[in-house]
Amino acid sequence: MRNTARQAVPSETAGNSPEPVGIVDLASEHRFLGRKLKREVQRILETGQFVLGRDLSEFENAFAAYCGVGYGAGTNSGSSAIELALRACGIGPGDEVIVPAHTFIASVMAVLNVGATPVLVDVEPRAFSLDIDLAAKAVTARSKAVLVVHLYGQMADMGALEDLARGHDLLLIEDAAQAHGAAFRNRKAGSFGACGCFSFYPTKNLGAAGDAGMVVTSNASLARRLKRLRNHGRSSHDRFVEVGFNERMDNLQAAILNVKLPNLEEWNDRRRKHAALYDRLLAGLPLSLPEELPGRRHVYHQYVVRARRRSALAKHLESRAIGTAVHYASPLHRQPALRDLGPLAGRFPVTERLAREVLSLPVHPYLREKDVRRVAREITAFFG
Ligand SMILES: *Cc1c(COP(=O)(O)O)cnc(C)c1O
């Protein structure tokens, strides 16, 4: 009823109470899939298959196939996925891992948590991923791997990264937590590195009803080791062959993700459609818009603009009931937890600048075209 009433009064003329446009809308997603999801939850409760059940292996196979690789190991979060990938690849104390300076902090913490040394490298200003020339300069005799992050839903330049990795004998590991379904020259995120690490945190392009993650790989023995490490180092019922962890994905989360996975392509397409409309409607404003670089399929986990007057713009949108977010407001090298890494301010000029300018606009699949148009209109009004 309320929705009908609201539709009768178009939001543009509703004075100072415009219809809210959220930065995420998980309720709509779950309303759409409600009946199927409830049936799955009910089934898991009735069968009691909570840990390492058939739903998990089904989801591992289905998601690995979606990424174009042979194997998947479900984990209890994206952060554990990265940690387990590093461990399964034998990376630990004494090893250096090159990581972009502009990313979610979990990428760097995973490296620290396995005892290795993260070497932060500034990003390039177009796809906001690792600056390859700087990465090459950061290579030392102790460098073991590059942890590339496909930030905001667009893949890094995997051609150049593969060359770099080959040239310096480095492992390539992908943090694809924001890039489910993104592609580089028609190959999907997660299929380039020794391991591809995904998060199914609820707001990601594919989200569970809680925490979950996965490592995908095309290497059968790595896959075996990943599944062992996440399960106490267990190789069979009564045999524990290495020191491991309890970092399994719940079977319940797998069942929920099995319901959602068939919708991922359509959800990504809708994000892309919203992004294309923003591109058109926001062109010409004093904003820098995200670019989809040649040969890449951007899945717009975030639609990130850059604005000199970011906080005034965000405040204006908030006053018009439009949600925005900043990914990420404080550069990693300024976070108290990472202070001991020692890099000085100013060594990451692009990262510093992004931290001041980036603003994520609503781009989730359950926006309507008129929501995108209203966001664009409010932004235009702000600059007008
Ligand atoms: C979300 C995210 C992670 C961590 O995933 P969790 O499931 O929240 O642990 C890691 N890296 C990036 C880039 C992310 O966006």
Written description of the protein model:
With 384 residues, the chain is of the alpha/beta class. It is 40% helix and 15% strand. It has helices at 2-8, 26-32, 34-47, 54-67, 78-88, 105-113, 132-138, 158-168, 220-229, 251-260, 264-282, 310-319, 349-357, 369-383, and strands at 71-75, 96-100, 117-121, 143-149, 171-175, 183-184, 187-188, 195-199, 213-217, 234-236, 239-240, 296-297, 303-306, 358-361. The chain is globular. The model is unreliable at 1-14 (pLDDT under 50). The structure holds pyridoxal-5'-phosphate. Pyridoxal-5'-phosphate binds next to helix 5 and helix 6.
Summarize the structure.
The protein is of the alpha/beta class and 384 residues long.
List the helices and strands and how they pair.
Elements: H1 2-8, H2 26-32, H3 34-47, H4 54-67, E1 71-75, H5 78-88, E2 96-100, H6 105-113, E3 117-121, H7 132-138, E4 143-149, H8 158-168, E5 171-175, E6 183-184, E7 187-188, E8 195-199, E9 213-217, H9 220-229, E10 234-236, E11 239-240, H10 251-260, H11 264-282, E12 296-297, E13 303-306, H12 310-319, H13 349-357, E14 358-361, H14 369-383
Parallel strand pairs: 2-3, 2-4, 4-5, 5-8
Antiparallel strand pairs: 1-9, 6-7, 6-12, 8-9, 10-11, 13-14
Helix pairs in contact: 3-10, 4-10, 5-6, 5-9, 11-14
The structure holds pyridoxal-5'-phosphate (PLP).
